[in-house]
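quick one: 2,5-dihydroxybenzoic acid bound model?
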Amino acid sequence: MSARPDPSAATCRERQAYYAAIRPLHLSPLWEQLHALVPPQPRSLCVAAHWRYEAVRPHLMRAGEIISAAEAVRRVLVLENPGLPGLASITQSLYAGLQLILPGEVAPAHRHTQSALRFVVEGSGAYTAVNGERTTMQPGDFIITPSWTWHDHGSDADGPVVWLDGLDIPLVRFFDAGFAQNAASDQQPITRPEGHSLARYGANMAPLREASPHGATSPIFCYPYARSREALARLQRDAAVDAWDGVKLRYVNPLTGGAPMPTMATFMQLLPAGFDGKPWRQTDGAMYSVVEGHGVATVGDDEAAQRFEFAPRDQFVVPSWQRVRLQARDDCVLFSFSDRPLQQAAALWREERMGS
Ligand code: GTQ
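yep, here:
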């Protein structure tokens, strides 16, 4: 762009007076803010951040002593992006939190237009119920609560169960499109046996004459870790490992081939021991949950890069368009989610894979 001479002090004063005169009419001059409104590339307010499970867990367990799931409704520690304080946002569009349920507790039934995903971090034997069906949680399972479905959580486990909640709360707030209701009873009636949805939709087969029960959202309720893990292990053995992603798969809605939820895409990847990934960047900031292994995520441009040495059950977030590099000490498995389906629907999504 061509350099323009700085305006004189008199001109500046004249313009300031003009801005003051138009302000009461709720008018503002675009020319003072055009560059910030239409930046040459994304400059997210969201920052890279890492939550070590070891550091968070004692506080989560303490929450279990000071409030019950019933009283809290959802006993969750929100993972607040340090660049977005007070907004309950992990990125500009998404929310993340760690939810704790103790043996015998019930988190009462409600429904909301926000879509939710659960990614099981610690413990087995809690369950979530949606649409008259329960799914029992195992570590690494990815579970869906579709928009506007009644859901309650409970636990027959003998210890604490913790999962990562991912919701599109900031997106729904942005659109001013949120509705929510509490149910009349704490637990919904169970009308179908566990595993029903998986049998109906999870065997690469589908019913002949039924509409999708949750519209654009996947009819699969729980994507079990055992299956995802086995697929990754086979691909690690039998296929080329991608230099940026390792072995990475996206979860699909089997009826559409698209993302499991209209607003959120989910992924699982395996980084083989010794993996030294090439850098990439994408316009969808993403939240990561470490299932297995120890490694390093380097996020940001060289001078300002942050180095997250991650361990199992750690959580970390990568902002839009920041450079990321993943390295693995032992075999690592990472779950992640982002707002990619909406960016793609709006034809905004971009990625760059460096060093190819
Ligand atoms: O489990 O329904 O972390 O409604 C935030 C809002 C979890 C839930 C959250 C919610 C839920």
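Residues 74, 76, 97, 99, 112, 116, 151, 165, 167 surround 2,5-dihydroxybenzoic acid (CB under 6 Å).
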